[in-house]
Design goal:
Rossmann fold; 11 helices; 19% strand; 7-stranded mixed beta sheet; alpha/beta; 343 residues
Length: 343
């Protein structure tokens, strides 16, 4: 048992509004439709960049938008933004991408809601000379975008897996996996990283329960309740993100088990770091969405202004945050986490 510390993306036609399940926050900044991409037309006006996130409510994507806005202001960029209405809203993202391309953007930064389904739209955009940079979540295949700026999600999972193993010590654990959703690469990478860090495979008997949560707190609570019905003695919980982890904590608290189950997570939002500080979560792997977006904007600017080709993967960093360090696992405390968090 564990004692977790308790401290005090012929030219595509824009779709109609009825079809567009998307929130386009920066549409008034876009040039008139039908204009070609400035990078290929030789226009001397500002560089035009579009940002399309999964949603516009998740604090992670709010911070990502903030990073894009800061970089846009610094580099005289005309920024347009859009978001899916919900996690998994591929159609909304396709509509936003088509609208941006029609309006003449030089580059699009996108966090794909569906890494595979978005690919045909991205290919159409790139065929028109638009630079496509994936943020946070890689496309499948990864070459469907020009570049990727993201956390190494496998490493993020590996860090919390190694931490959980070190905290658990010798003996067999009873592990619950609170996953994201099938087919979403970020979720697969984090889960697989956790398993590697813990030193086990998905079919290991120590994994006594696995549930999808969509990264949602209420669904995380329900998933944990289901797992506890299956195996009441779970003592390690992997959560895809901090909301799912906090849902698990709520379910455990209702069973009187909040203090003896180790919950580890990924993201590093301010609320999540505070949950680590209070002891509700044992540790989280912190990532940096503002940096992903700002570097993406800068890459499009460099491509347009001096022809610098953006390609490959840029790791924007990950740090294990905990106030209960474990031997052999590098970490920083919650003071550092709060200084660098988002949300």
């Amino acid at each position: 048992m564990f004692q977790t510390r308790r401290s005090p993306r012929p030219r595509p036609r824009p779709r109609t509004a009825a079809v567009a399940a998307v929130s386009v926050a920066g549409v008034l900044l876009l040039a008139s439709c039908g204009e070609g991409a400035k990078g290929s037309s030789g226009d001397d006006g500002p560089v035009k960049v579009g940002l399309i996130t999964k949603t516009d409510t998740n604090p992670f994507f709010v911070k990502m938008k903030e990073g894009a806005e800061r970089a846009a202001k610094s580099h005289d960029v005309e920024l347009s933004t859009a978001a899916g209405k919900f996690d998994g809203d591929n159609e909304g993202q396709v509509t936003a991408l088509e609208n941006m391309v029609a309006a003449g953007v030089d580059g699009v930064l996108i966090t794909p809601n569906d890494s595979k389904a978005i690919v045909p739209a991205l290919e159409r955009a790139r065929a028109k000379g638009v630079v496509v940079i994936a943020l946070d979540t890689p496309t499948e295949p990864e070459k469907a975008s020009d570049a990727l700026f993201a956390t190494d999600n496998f490493k993020a999972g590996e860090l919390i897996g190694a931490y959980a193993k070190a905290r658990h010590g010798a003996g067999k654990a009873k592990i619950a996996l609170l996953n994201l959703a099938p087919g979403v690469s970020v979720g697969v990478l984090r889960r697989d990283g956790f398993l590697k860090g813990y030193g086990i495979k998905e079919n290991d008997p120590q994994v006594v329960c696995a549930q999808d949560t969509g990264g949602d707190q209420a669904k995380g609570q329900t998933a944990m309740e289901n797992c506890l019905q299956k195996e009441p003695d779970i003592d390690v919980v992997y959560s895809i993100n901090e909301p799912a982890g906090m849902g698990a904590h709520t379910a455990l608290k209702a069973k009187g088990r909040a203090d003896d189950v180790l919950i580890v997570s990924v993201d590093g939002g301010c609320t999540g770091v505070k949950a680590v500080q209070s002891g509700a979560l044992a540790a989280t792997s912190q990532q940096y969405p503002l940096l992903m977006a700002s570097k993406g904007v800068e890459a499009v600017v460099s491509h347009v202004k001096d022809g610098t080709k953006v390609s490959g993967y840029t790791d924007t960093g990950v740090t294990l945050i905990t106030d209960e360090p474990a031997a052999g696992v590098t970490a920083k405390d919650t003071a550092y986490g709060l200084d660098n968090c988002w949300g």
